[in-house]
Amino acid sequence: MKKRLEVVGPMRYVYPFTAIIGQEKMKLALILNAINPRLGGVLVRGEKGTAKSTAVRALAALLPEIEVVAGCPCNCDPRDAARLCPFCRERLAAGEELVSVTTRVPVVDLPVSATEDRVVGSLDFEYAIRHGRRRFEPGILARANRGIIYVDEVNLLDDHLVDALLDAAASGVNVVEREGITFAHPAAFILVGTMNPEEGELRPQLLDRFGLCVPVEGVDDPAARVAIARRREAFDNDPLEFLAAFAPREAGLREEIVRARALLFHVEVPAAAVRRAADLAAEALAAGHRAEIVLAQAARTLAAWERRETATPEDVERVAELVLYHRRREAPPPPPEQPEEQEPQEPPEPPEEEEQPDEPPHTQPNDQGEESSGDIAAGGYDQPNSNSSPECGAPAVVAETVFAVGEPFRVKRIEYERDRVLRKGSGRRSRTRTPTKAGRYVRATLRRERNDLAFDATLRAAAPFQKRRARDGVAMAVESQDIREKVREKRIGNFLLFVVDASGSMGAQQRMVAAKSAVLSLLLDAYQKRDRVGMVAFKGDRAEVLLPPTNSVELAEKRLAELPTGGRTPLAAGLLKAYEVARAHLFKDPNLSPLLIVISDGRGNVGLGGGNPREDLRRVTALVHEEARIKTLMVDVEKDGFLSFGLARELAAVLEAEYYKIEDLKADALVEAVRALQDRR
User: Using CA atoms, how far apart are residues 515 and 400, in angstroms rounded to an integer?
Assistant: First the structure.
């Protein structure tokens, strides 16, 4: 017969769940998961200081205590023999009696800096060295079994850790196959994640794995804000008296949760409720079928919470906001309407013929968006270097237009191809090998450079030679040639430098609106991935750094909105300025290879300091091409037509840059172009 012991430990005062003012949706989502952990957890989206972490810890303190096997690292239930961990089964097989103890529901904070081996578990190296046998050392998922895992800023967690968390949360089992070990233990926990959307989104396939999602905001009512401040002050001044005041409410809520748990599996979900769940999921354009499954489970849980044995379509509608908030998708835009065909009109009568000169007049290119002929047809770089009036010789006033910034769009993931270069830094975009002990352990190597010992690989290398070595009282003798070091990977940011043509030709056919939209979209994505971003604009007779290397989206959007369009095209000056910015960045941070994204039609008609535009452009492109660490992508804004000269394509060929037309600038095509270029590295 199992014994019962009471655990007595230091008291930690936790703010009562029933004392939280407002945030009713968040509290309901947490309670539903406490009743039915199969819902898949809660994702709380919103600003800081809205009682997110307070509510999670208060819920854990509110839940009834649980019985666990004494000494079990997985908090196994002694009354559930089918879900015992391998450690408990091994003890039973050895004839040991499992002693049960009562403890609080565990709440485990998962830091963003956690490593994979600490989350899922790894080889117990101390045991292996002492006894010469392998044994599994449980991680955070084991400690959180039958409890709660709280991840603050879950969107900043590495994707492979989020995968492991959500897989375990969905199946209730953590399966580990690494370092020569295969181990499976129960991992039934409530996953609560919080995130600030401004810091970046979770991948859609990971976002969908959270059962419920709740947007939270601060309380606006002044009276409620005063009540919140007074309650918090009272709790801080005398927590025991405050807890005693709310003890009856806490006890009542605890009893309601216990009662709802017992009723849950007796609640029926009729066909009408399931059909309503399917209809709502279809209306939300939710991908897959997880939405309607979670809707039915949430409706069942809500009915149990309200002491009913049948879930109704109304229950489905009440929980729909929690289930569909993060799964709702926008409908695709309708196809553009085709213009109606118009009947051809009779051409006007030709005017009376006038005497024409023997030679046609010389024409200059029009930088306000109209195609032109003349010297540009011979190359496009030999036009005069001044904006002059043929009548009086005085400088002409160039009209400038400020185009609006188009709507940003969601971009796809952009990653640099992994190589053998060791890089430092931080970020969230590209995987790279790191020379430090930070990062994910991916494999072992014989090279000994960082004193980062790979215990598992070292032990495996030494194992075949143990019979021939003198162990002198140790389980395993390790020699110098057995030593292996860890090869680690981590994510770092990148440096994207936009080189934007702001001359008059960009005003034609809304080219500048599309260009600004794409630049802003990539800026937003770069901010979320912790990239460094810069921008150089060129027009008239010079180029300027519009945005120094930064990650400030607000500043970038402001500069984009204020960027005027007009004047001639100093392409050589723009590329030279971008080259100087990129080189300066390489001196400061050689770990990041700059990527120049040039958006232009390639019609450079202004030289450097009055020089020949063609020769100046040739010298600058040679400079950029010689710096192997600088990569280039060319986006051609010139429209296909009778007067298309293909100068941007020629420039891309000289730079050995990826080349794309302006038509590919919208949607995700530019981002795909960036990815294609980076995958060649």
Answer: 17
Give the separation between CA 513 and CA 510, rounded to whole angstroms.
5
Tokens 């930088």, located at residue: 367
Instruction: Record the tokens describing residue 380, joined without a space.
Output: 């496009």
Cα separations (Å) of 154 from 200, 223, 359, 384? 10, 32, 72, 57
* DSSP helix/strand/coil, 308: coil
Which has the closest alpha carbon to 421: 590, 594, 583, 586?
590
Give 358's contacts (C-beta < 8 A, 6+ positions apart): none
What gap in Å lies between CA 416 and CA 494, rounded to an integer?
8
Q: Report the distance separating Cα 29 and Cα 302, nearest Å.
A: 10
Give the best-scoring range by mean pLDDT among 30-34, 102-106, 551-555: 30-34
Would you say 375 and 382 are in contact if contact means Cβ atoms under 8 Å apart?
yes
pTM recorded for the entire structure: 0.57
Residue type, 620: V
Q: In which band, very low, low, confident or very high, does the pLDDT at 480 lie, cut at 50, 70 and 90?
A: confident
360 confidence band (pLDDT: 50, 70, 90): very low
Residue 143 in tokens: 């400690």
- List all residues 6 or more positions away from 82 whose beta carbon is below 8 Å from its beta carbon: none
Task: Say if CB 172 and CB 187 are below 8 A apart.
Answer: yes
Rounded-to-integer distance, Cα 592 and Cα 251, Å: 57
Per-residue pLDDT of 78-104, as tens digits, reads 888 888 999 999 999 998 888 999 988
Residues that are catalytic: 290
The contacts of residue 389 (CB under 8 Å, 6+ apart) are 395, 396
- 40: Cβ–Cβ under 8 A, 6 or more apart, which residues? 169, 170, 191, 209, 210, 211, 212, 294
Q: Name which of 135-149, 185-199, 315-329, 419-433 the model is least confident about.
A: 419-433
CA distances to 107, 156, 419 from 114, in Å? 16, 11, 24
Q: How far apart are CA 415 and CA 432, in angstroms?
A: 10
Which helix (H) or strand (E) is 190 found in, with range?
A: strand 190-195
| Other CB atoms within 10 Å distance of the CB of residue 623 | 14
Contact between 546 and 500 (Cβ < 8 Å): yes
